[in-house]
Amino acid sequence: MNFLPLVLVTALLHVYIGARLVPGLEAYPMGQWLLMAGLAVSALVMPLGLMAGRVARQPWADVLTWAGLLFMGLFSSMLVLTLARDAALLALWLADAAAPGHLPMAQLRTVSAEAVPLLGGLITLLGFLNARRTAAVVNVDVPIQGLPAALHGFTVAQISDVHVGPTIKQQYLRRIVDKVNALDADVVAITGDLVDGKVSELAAHVAPLADLTSRHGTYFVTGNHEYYSGAHAWIDELRRLGLTVLLNQHVVIRPPAAAGEAGAHLVLAGVTDYSAGHFDPAHRSDPEAALRGAPQEAVRVLLAHQPRSAAAAAKAGFDLQLSGHTHGGQFYPWNLFVRFQQPFTAGLHKLQNLWVYTSRGTGYWGPPKRFGAPSEITFLRLVAG
To answer: Count of CB atoms within 10 A of residue 315's CB?
Structure first.
């Protein structure tokens, strides 16, 4: 990847923030210098953090990545707030031009210039604390029409988008595993984007997944980041840990209470990531293939990393799809833009006869920051609709 354009664009955006804010801090010379120094360090460290694996060895590569991603989170908020400040000042300037002398424009420029770095820092701090805490459990009841009595109350613990990598390691995942195990679910589902890195780098940090417990096992489907990280090697590693990887496949689950009740079983299917065919044609995502050979009279649940698999899942005849990928936008205002790429951002929605639940994710990607889109471990319960 050519990082020169990225470095130039990033530098120009930092210059824009400085040019818009520094003049408004003229009453605070020390504040001006601190802001300029912080922007200069950010413009340098952010690109280096993205190239950490190329320019440094462990553990310094992770340290550099941490620094770059922290500055990236702060820069993102600063940029959005600076743009919002400029839009607000323009509106106030137009109002003042229509009725001159009624607005203290100089004071508004100063106060708003002071507010941007303070708010940016506060949002980044709160976002960091939200990202690094163990995800909360979100309880969701999914009404299934015609649900057999034996499957009423069947539970699925879903985790998604953990992104084990430079800033998420074994201890973080261990806390998630412990919290999932405490739910005593019938099934554990991992809906992709588990890792950001190679098996050789992260195998020890993913090892806690071997300790996941449920009545009917742990099931995994690939996300797009698995294909960036060597999907075939990760599939082998997760199988070694005891997970069932569903590659356009299904399993049939028959709860003990279903004995003698016709159709009282659950088909749990999984498809490869929506974009997997671009990386390996043999992995092209195919919900219909995932159902091939499944019993006709059964509740059908699909694990699919991206919500946009829902159209094909509805056509194939699934009752419920569990997805992730979006992170719920992860932090404001990017959650406003997810809907342009995915049909659902977060939560439970319906497409024709298909329920789609989109997790906000259990970890985070990129900046260790969540603001307005908290992470989650989802505990789904099937109920009669």
So the answer is: 12
Are 384 and 151 spatial neighbours (Cβ–Cβ below 8 Å)?
Answer: no
CA distance 244 to 233: 14
State the number of CA atoms in the 13 A half-sphere of 74 facing the CB.
Answer: 20
Query: Which of 114, 132, 150 is the C-terminal boundary of a domain?
Result: 132
> Is there a single domain that holds both residue 191 and residue 327?
yes
Distance (Å, whole) CA 345 – CA 360: 8
> What's the token pair of residue 167?
């800033």
Residue 6 identity: L
Residues counted in the chain: 385
Last residue of a domain, one of 84, 116, 132: 132
Number of structural domains the chain divides into: 2
What pLDDT does 102 receive?
78
Task: Give the residue-averaged pLDDT of 79-105.
Answer: 90
Which residue stretches of the chain are H helix?
4-21, 29-50, 52-55, 60-98, 105-132, 170-181, 199-206, 224-228, 231-240, 287-291, 310-316
Q: With bands split at pLDDT 50, 70 and 90, how would you rate the model's confidence at 340?
A: confident
Contact (Cβ atoms closer than 8 angstroms) between residue 373 and residue 335: yes
Same domain, 28 and 168: no
* Six-digit token string for 74: 């702060």
- pLDDT band at residue 263 under the 50/70/90 scheme: low
Distance separating alpha carbons of residues 205 and 87, to the nearest angstrom:
45
Q: Do 128 and 174 reside in the same domain of the chain?
A: no
User: What does the pLDDT average to over 278-291?
Assistant: 96
Q: Please state, in angstroms and rounded to a whole number, the distance separating the CA atoms of residues 37 and 375.
A: 33
* First vs last C-alpha separation in the chain: 50
Q: Are residues 153 and 291 in the same domain?
A: yes
pTM of the model: 0.92
In DSSP notation, 226-288 reads HHHS-HHHHHHHHHHTTPEE-SSEEEEE--GGGTT-TT--EEEEE---TTGGGT-GGG---HH
Q: Are residues 106 and 18 in the same domain?
A: yes
C-alpha angle 19-21-22 in degrees, rounded to nearest 5: 75
Task: Please list the residues that pair with 380 across neighbouring strands.
Answer: 140, 156
What residue numbers bound the domain in which 256 lies? 136-384
Count CB atoms within 10 A of the CB of residue 199: 18
Among residues 73, 79, 49, 69, the alpha carbon closest in space to that of 123 is found at 73
